[in-house]
Design brief:
With about 270 residues, the chain is α/β, with parallel strands linked by helices. The protein has one domain: TIM Barrel, CATH 3.20.20. Helices cover about 45% and strands about 15% of the residues. The protein is built from twelve helices and eleven strands. The strands form three sheets. Strands 1, 2, 3, 9 and 10 form a five-stranded parallel β-sheet that branches. Helix 6 links the parallel strand 4 and strand 5. Helix 8 runs parallel beside helix 10. The radius of gyration is 17 Å and the shape is globular. The chain starts with a strand and ends in a 6-residue tail after the last strand.
Length: about 270
């Protein structure tokens, strides 16, 4: 595969905090800082560099932040699905996955957004596998794993945990940090960005597919300087070294050449949740 990079962002607003029980049951919703401050500023940064990204957001956000999501799509980015309220996808049975997905697809349709793909929270496909996605009409999935591929008429565009910002700090992901830096200790933002830039260099030289996974709620941790450095590297790479594209566009390319990508993905079945 021609060197292809997807810049992706997971989670928005208070959905995941609600699912974890981190907010009181009577908490006021719809004014979360990641939606009111962080995401608008991020969109300006992306626009200034001509980078199109994919935002995997929880379905609840279609009810809480419809205008913001329409703006994301209107600026040329992709809005994709990340469960209704960040439920651990692999822990849901097939019927629960189908219900969750149908609810989310319908909510996004009501605000004029078509969902093409899912990134399962926790990275696992779970009992429903790809059948639930195919039945719902989705074209791709982005679970944990390596290598772009296709199976059962669904494109697989996996992410690797070492390309995810939360891997730098979350205690359950100490094993990932061992792979990244040889130590389970937290990794600082500068070291994380350096590792991503090295991975972009490798991708440009070797070809293939890579997804970078950032979280709006972690951009304060990353810091403006490191965020700008990463975005500048991506923008420079897109000028000739590799293709930077939305996941739905990459999926369309994979699905248009099924023989070339059949069996190209190795799923990561490890769980940290």
């Amino acid at each position: 595969m021609t060197a292809t990079l997807a810049l992706t962002f997971d989670n928005l607003g208070e959905a995941a905090e609600l699912e974890m029980g981190a907010l009181p049951a009577d908490a006021a919703l719809g004014g979360h800082r990641t939606a009111t401050e962080v995401l608008p500023a991020l969109l300006d940064r992306l626009d200034g560099r001509g980078i199109a990204a994919t935002f995997f957001v929880e379905g609840l956000n279609a009810e809480l932040y419809p205008d913001l999501l329409r703006e994301v799509a209107g600026r040329g980015h992709e809005v994709a699905y990340h469960a209704w309220r960040h439920e651990q996808w692999g822990a849901l049975d097939a019927a629960e996955q189908a219900e969750n997905l149908a609810r989310g697809v319908a909510a996004f349709e009501r605000i004029g957004i078509e969902i093409a793909g899912l990134r399962p929270p926790g990275g696992l496909l779970g009992p429903g596998g790809l059948g639930v996605l195919r039945e719902a009409g989705l074209r791709y999935c982005s679970p944990a794993g390596t290598g772009a591929g296709t199976e059962d008429s669904v494109a697989l565009l996996p992410f690797q945990w070492r390309h995810l910002d939360a891997s730098c700090v979350l205690p359950p992901l100490a094993a990932v940090r061992e792979q990244m830096a040889g130590s389970p200790d937290p990794i600082d933002p500068a070291a994380f960005v350096d590792s991503l830039r090295a991975e972009i260099d490798r991708l440009a030289n070797d070809g293939g597919y890579m997804a970078i996974v950032l979280h709006p709620f972690m951009l304060d941790w990353l810091g403006e300087e490191q965020l700008d450095a990463l975005l500048d590297r991506i923008a420079a790479a897109s000028a000739g070294e590799l293709r930077v594209a939305r996941c739905r566009d990459i999926a369309d390319r994979v699905l248009s050449h099924p023989g070339r990508f059949q069996g190209g993905t190795a799923l990561d079945t490890a769980t940290w949740a």
